C-alpha cells in the first residue's frame, strides 16, 4: 500500500492525499468514501451495475464486516474460491475489513469481555476473539483490515473506558503477531469521550508497526460538539504521512468535521439509510451562498439536500431527480417512475436510488477534495453548514 | 414509435416475415411499432412496469424484446390516466423496445374475491374499497389504449381447463361476442395491435369454432388462451397443435402462460411464436436457477459450498437459440440436444414424444425404448 499526503495548501488539519492499494490499478484520491456493503456488495446494487453505473475509481472502495460471513457461505469456501475479490468478481475493487458496521454488526460493549469483542447482529449476539477474527479475515483476503477493538459509547465509566483502551491495544498486538502473511493492517484507536484516553491510545498505536489507523468509538452517542476535540486528540498524535480511517461519521456535516480533523477515509451508512427511506440526495455539488434563499421546506420531509420520492407531489414529475446529475438513474428515469416503483414496493426502486445517492455522495467528497486543493476548505465547510442552517431557518420562519 | 421505413415493409403496426421453417416450426421477424423482434420469443412479465430488480440496460443485455405489463396492476397504480398523461408506458418506464399488455381479466379472476363474469363484463370487488366494479371489454381496451403497448389483448371469458360442462361453451361464444366489442372500442388500431384469444377448453370442436370466428375478424395476431392452468400435458399439446394448424401462417401465434423451457420447445415445434410466463422471474425470487439440465435450487444446503458457476455452458437465451436453430436449418438437432441435456437417462415424457411425432421431429435418439 502506498499513501502520500499532498502538501502545499493551508487548510488547517484537513489534507488531501493519494492512496494506492493492491487490486485497484487506479490511485484513489482522499478524503474518500468507502461504500457500505453487506457481504461485500452494496445493499441493492449488483456487481455488474457497480462497475457500469458508478464513477471510477471513486466507487472502488468497499467496506465490509467479516462478521457478515459467520452465517451463510463458510469462510473456508470463500478461501477455496480465492477470497472476496474472486467470489464477487470485483478484481479492481478495494475491500476494507472493519469488524463493526453500523447496520448489522453493532458493538455491544456490555457483553465484550477480556476474551473478545461482542456484536449485536440479526443472528444474535456474537463474541469474537482476536484469533477467530484474524482467521476470518485471512479467508476473505481484503486489501486492508482493521484490528479488533473494544468500542464503548460516550457515557461509560472512566474505568470501563480505560479498560477498552487496554484491551484494544492488547488485541492489536495479538492481531499483529497472528498476521503471518504480512497483510495491510490498520491499528484501531478508541478512547470513548475522554481526551486523555484518546491521547494515550493514539500514542500507543502510533508506536506499532501498522500501515494506517482506524479510529473507532464514534457514532455511539457522543455529541458533535464534543467530538471535534476527541478527533484532534487522536490525529494530533499520529504521524502525518499515514492514512486515517474513521467509522461512524456518516452525515455530510460529520464528514466535514472529520476532514477538518485530518481524516482521510470515511465509511458511512448515510446512503443506505436514505435509500431505504426513499430519500434522494439533491444537494448541489457546487455550493453558492444565497442560491437556496427561496427554498420552501415541504411537508414531504425533504429539505435542501434531499427529497422524499414517495411524496405524492412527484407522481407526475417527469424530471430526473437532479437535472445535472450524470448517474444512470437521472440519465434514464424520472421522479414519477421512481415514485411509482416505491409506491408499489418494487426492488428496482432501491437499486436506482442507491445508484443515484452513491453518485451524489461521491460527488460531495469530490467537492471536498477540490476545496482542499484550492486552499478553501474552511470556507467550503462554513458555507455548507451555514446554508443548511439558513434554509431551515428560512423555512421555519416563513410559516 | 419507430417505423422501419428503410426496409420494404408495409406501414402497418405489425408485420410477420418468416425467415426459416422446419415442418410446422418457424423462425420469423416480427416488426412492431417499437421494436423489430425475432421469434420464437419469450416475454418476461413486468407486472408493475418493471421486471423485478433489473434495469432497462440489463434487460437489453440479456436479449429481452417484449415485456408484458399487467393492465390490472397498472390501472390500479399509477393508473392508466397518469401513464397516458406522461406519454404512455414506454416513456414512463423508458423502455425502448416492445410492450404487450394483457386485458386485466385474468388477474381479476385469479386475484379477487367475488369475481363474476356476465355478458356485460367481469364484475369484481374493488381492492381499494371493496365496492363492486365492472370491467367491460370496452373499458379494458380503453385502459390499454391509454397505456400504449405495441400489442393489446382482447378481454376474453377465460375458464380453467380443469372445469368441464356447458360453462366452457358459454365462455367460448362470449369471447367471440366480446372480440367485436373490443374491436369497436379500439381507438388506436394504427399504433396498437389487438390480439384475439382462442378459448374453448380442451374440446376440439369448440376450439375450432373459436379459431374460425377469430380468423374471420382478420386480427393482427392470435393467442391461444385458457391453457397452462393445470390441465394434463397430453391435452395441452393437442390443443396447441390444433390451433396452430388452423391459425393463419402470416400472423403470430402467442401461447399465453407458457412456461417451462420444455413447453416452449414443444410449442415452437408445433408452430407457436410467442410466450409469456411468471415462471423465470418468480422462481428466481425463490432461489431457483434455470439451467439446461432443469433447475438448481440455489438455497439448498448442498449448494452452500459449491463454487462452480450456475451454468458452465451459459446458454442463457432459449428463444434466441430456437430462432437461430430454425433459421440455420438445424432445428431437429437443437431439439434433440435440448432433450438429451434435460433427460440424460432418456426418460423423455410420453406427451413430448407424441407432440414431436405430430411436429414431424425425430427424437428417437433421445428416448430410451420403454419396451425391450
UniProtKB/TrEMBL annotation, chain A:
GO annotation, cellular component aspect: cytoplasm
Cofactor: Zn(2+)
Record domain tRNA-guanine(15) transglycosylase-like: where: 13-389
UniProtKB keywords: Cytoplasm, Metal-binding, tRNA processing, Zinc
Localization per Swiss-Prot or TrEMBL: Cytoplasm
GO biological process: tRNA modification
Predominant subcellular localization, coarse grouping: cytoplasm
Domain of life: Eukaryota
GO molecular function, one term: metal ion binding
Entry note: cofactor: Binds 1 zinc ion per subunit.
Binding site for Zn(2+): 325, 327, 330, 356
Subunit structure: Heterodimer of a catalytic subunit and an accessory subunit.
Described purpose of this protein according to its UniProt entry: Non-catalytic subunit of the queuine tRNA-ribosyltransferase (TGT) that catalyzes the base-exchange of a guanine (G) residue with queuine (Q) at position 34 (anticodon wobble position) in tRNAs with GU(N) anticodons (tRNA-Asp, -Asn, -His and -Tyr), resulting in the hypermodified nucleoside queuosine (7-(((4,5-cis-dihydroxy-2-cyclopenten-1-yl)amino)methyl)-7-deazaguanosine).
Family: Belongs to the queuine tRNA-ribosyltransferase family. QTRT2 subfamily.
Name by which UniProt lists this protein: Queuine tRNA-ribosyltransferase accessory subunit 2
UniProtKB/TrEMBL annotation, chain B:
Family assignment from sequence similarity: Belongs to the queuine tRNA-ribosyltransferase family.
GO cellular component: cytosol
GO molecular function, one term: tRNA-guanosine(34) queuine transglycosylase activity
GO biological process, one term: tRNA modification
Catalysed reaction, written as an equation: guanosine(34) in tRNA + queuine = queuosine(34) in tRNA + guanine
Main location: cytoplasm
Keywords on record: Cytoplasm, Glycosyltransferase, Metal-binding, Transferase, tRNA processing, Zinc
Gene: LOC113711099
Pfam families per the UniProt record, alphabetical: TGT
Coiled-coil regions, chain positions: none
Active-site residues from the entry: 102 (proton acceptor), 276 (nucleophile)
Subcellular location as annotated: Cytoplasm
Domain tRNA-guanine(15) transglycosylase-like: 24-323
SUPFAM superfamilies membership: tRNA-guanine transglycosylase
Name the UniProt record assigns to this protein: Queuine tRNA-ribosyltransferase catalytic subunit 1
Role summary: Catalytic subunit of the queuine tRNA-ribosyltransferase (TGT) that catalyzes the base-exchange of a guanine (G) residue with queuine (Q) at position 34 (anticodon wobble position) in tRNAs with GU(N) anticodons (tRNA-Asp, -Asn, -His and -Tyr), resulting in the hypermodified nucleoside queuosine (7-(((4,5-cis-dihydroxy-2-cyclopenten-1-yl)amino)methyl)-7-deazaguanosine). Catalysis occurs through a double-displacement mechanism. The nucleophile active site attacks the C1' of nucleotide 34 to detach the guanine base from the RNA, forming a covalent enzyme-RNA intermediate.
Organism: Coffea arabica (Arabian coffee)
InterPro entries: TGT, TGT-like_sf, tRNA_ribo_trans-like
Subunit note: Heterodimer of a catalytic subunit and an accessory subunit.
RNA binding, as annotated region: 257-263, 281-285
EC number: 2.4.2.64
Binding of substrate, residues: 102-106, 156, 199, 226
